[in-house]
Specification:
The chain is mostly helical. It contains four helices and no strands. Helix 1 runs antiparallel to helix 4.
């Protein structure tokens, strides 16, 4: 690569990084969750192939929703934040809010 190509590549990388940081800041994700940190060995009944498909983001392009259910303490919030973090990485916007604070119209 010549010098100008490296400069252009660096600029594009910087802009992408700043855009991701802004999406993550606006998402207000509480737990510091990322897809790479998911422990599928934990006994919470998480279907690994299904969750990996969710992480691919096809449900976002298909305009579908995801509902995580389960008993208290199994990590639903953490998994939801991991999905939102992955969506931000893929260029989507996300917003974390707990149900009691969700604005009702």
């Amino acid at each position: 690569m010549n010098g100008s190509a490296l400069l252009i590549d660096h600029e594009a990388t910087e802009r992408d990084g700043k855009a991701l940081a802004l999406r993550l800041q606006r998402a207000k994700l509480k737990p510091n969750a990322a897809a790479e940190d998911i422990d599928y060995r934990h006994a919470r009944g998480l279907d690994k192939p299904l969750f990996q498909r969710l992480l691919n983001g096809n449900w976002l392009t298909a305009h579908q929703n995801v509902l995580l259910t389960g008993p208290t303490g199994v990590g639903k919030t953490w998994l939801a934040c991991a999905l939102a973090h992955q969506a931000c990485r893929q260029g989507y916007s996300a917003y974390y809010v707990r149900l009691p604070r969700l604005p009702m119209s």
